[in-house]
Write a structure and sequence with these properties.
mainly alpha; 216 residues; two-stranded antiparallel ribbon; 9 helices
């Protein structure tokens, strides 16, 4: 970073240090007593979320590029369309589990609500409420209740059709908001990317290239 006289290069160990040195306001951060959080529960739910982010990364690599989709369809459109649907269902079901209430009857759920309840932080409550509003507006919550977790007779028979209103960008946006909440809870000085860097020879691009070579 350049110093104030534009002639020296200054190094800062953190963004906070840079702001303080240059008279800039620090970014707003959620504050609460983090000692109240069950760290083992937080670790487990974050590992679950990491798996979701890996699924999103693979799905994005395979099914959001026209070149990739064309290659998959040429290789075997039936199989890969089934895989695509399975990925969408898995992504939505994982989001739904993270947005479960803290308790269902007498059973506790390891969900965002369960972790946020430990924080006793109104700002996190507002963020979760906003996220749940987006989730419900997409129709995913009803889809989970009627078909992904149950075979609702009226829905399957078409008597009460589902009204699904989401695209890949909506799924990605919800996962970004979940990541933002996890960052607020774990370390508000960190901004984590939801895209997971996979081994270069085993990521979606490498897979598509191998399929393309096999089709020549």
């Amino acid at each position: 970073m350049v110093g104030k006289d534009d002639s020296e290069i200054s190094r800062y160990s953190s963004f906070d240090e840079f702001c303080n040195a240059n008279g800039l306001p620090l970014p707003h951060r959620v504050e609460f007593d983090r000692s109240k959080i069950n760290q083992q529960e937080l670790k487990v739910i974050k590992n679950y979320f990491t798996d979701l982010c890996i699924d999103l990364t693979v799905y994005s690599d395979l099914f959001t590029s026209q070149e990739s989709v064309d290659t998959l369809n040429e290789f075997n459109d039936l199989i890969f369309n089934r895989i695509k649907r399975a990925y969408v269902e898995k992504l939505c079901l994982s989001i739904a589990c993270l947005l479960d209430p803290a308790e269902t009857g007498n059973n506790k759920n390891l969900s965002l609500a369960h972790i946020i309840k430990q924080c006793n932080c109104p700002e996190l409550d507002v963020k979760l409420d906003g996220l749940k509003g987006i989730y419900e507006s997409t129709g995913i919550k009803r889809w989970r209740q009627k078909l992904l977790a149950h075979n609702d007779l009226s829905t399957l028979m078409g008597v009460k059709p589902l009204d699904l209103k989401f695209e890949h960008n909506d799924i990605e946006h919800m996962i970004e908001l979940i990541q933002e909440i996890f960052d607020d809870i774990s370390d508000p000085t960190v901004h984590t990317d939801i895209r997971v860097v996979l081994p270069f020879d085993k990521n979606g691009s490498a897979f598509i290239k191998k399929l393309q070579l096999s089709l020549k």
